[in-house]
Design a protein that fits this description.
The complex is a heterodimer of chains A (110) and B (126).
Chain A (H helix, E strand, L loop, with lengths): L8 E4 L5 E6 L11 E6 L6 E4 L13 E6 L2 E6 L8 E8 L5 E3 L3 E5 L1
Parallel strand pairs in A: 1-9
Antiparallel strand pairs in A: 2-6, 3-4, 3-7, 5-6, 7-8, 7-9
Chain B lengths: L2 E5 L2 E3 L5 E8 L7 E7 L6 E6 L8 E3 L7 E6 L4 E6 L8 E12 L2 E9 L3 E5 L2
Parallel strand pairs in B: 2-11
Antiparallel strand pairs in B: 1-3, 3-8, 4-5, 4-9, 5-6, 7-8, 9-10, 9-11
Classes of the chains: A mainly beta (110), B mainly beta (126).
Chain lengths: 110, 126
């Protein structure tokens, strides 16, 4: 499978909102509701922040939200905080027990 | 606490083999599917392999990039999942992670990875 497409970087000031896009195909994002997002700080393991397109695990702030339209999923972070500065990766189920990830987006909090 | 700890990484020459281990704690390991990923410097995670619970047949799947060279297995008595890597290439250099796959929540199907281990570095170089 080909990797999902994400912007290399986004930035925003504290308190602002940013949205990160994740574009796949009709074989993954477009056909399955199993899109998840992961936050990764340098040197750390990925951490789940959104699953099933829109759902937040317990403990993840409500500032994080997800959506999907067609072959593109999006992660929105509102009320940016300094600790949100990290890399963000999207992932999608791609059929036959396989998964595909995005190349990652670096979020800079100005 | 639900936790995964990888081990077995290191420096290996091209063409050689290496076996990674992932030890689970804090949950009923045998009930869950497990996966291996890798992450090269500056890249996103790459899904490598999947193994279902033995109760669901222990089905395995592989990414095209490693199929035929890598083998995933599990030992539920030790709460371990393994990744046997053969015929290693320089492009296999990466941090390797294991992660638990959640396929069902309550009565609903889902698909996400949580938690992830801290990773183990594999360097393939002569």
């Amino acid at each position: 499978q080909s990797a999902l497409t994400q912007p290399r970087s986004v930035s925003g000031s504290p308190g602002q909102s940013v949205t990160i896009s994740c574009t796949g195909t009709s074989n993954d994002v477009g056909v399955y509701k199993y899109v998840s997002w992961y936050q990764q700080h340098p040197g750390k393991a990925p951490k789940l922040i959104i699953y099933d397109v829109t759902k937040r695990p317990s403990g993840v702030p409500g500032r994080f939200s997800g959506s999907k339209s067609g072959n593109t999923a999006s992660l929105t972070i509102s009320g940016l905080q300094a600790e949100d500065e990290a890399y963000y990766y999207c992932a999608s189920y791609a059929g036959s027990y396989t998964s595909v990830f995005g190349g990652g987006t670096k979020l800079t909090v100005l | 606490e639900v936790q995964l700890v990888e081990s077995g990484g290191g420096l290996v020459k091209p063409g050689r083999s290496l076996r990674l281990s992932c030890t689970a704690s804090g949950f009923s390991f045998g009930d869950y599917a497990m996966n291996w990923f890798r992450q090269a410097p500056g890249k996103g995670p790459e899904w490598l392999s999947f193994i279902r619970s033995n109760g669901h047949g222990g089905t395995t799947e592989y990414a095209a990039s490693v199929k035929g060279r890598f083998t995933i297995s599990r030992d539920d008595s030790k709460n371990n999942v393994y990744l046997q890597m053969n015929s290693l290439k320089t492009e296999d250099t990466a941090v390797y992670y294991c992660a638990r796959l959640i396929m069902v929540q309550g009565v609903f199907r889902t698909w996400f990875f949580d938690p992830w281990g801290q990773g183990t570095l594999v360097t393939v170089s002569s």
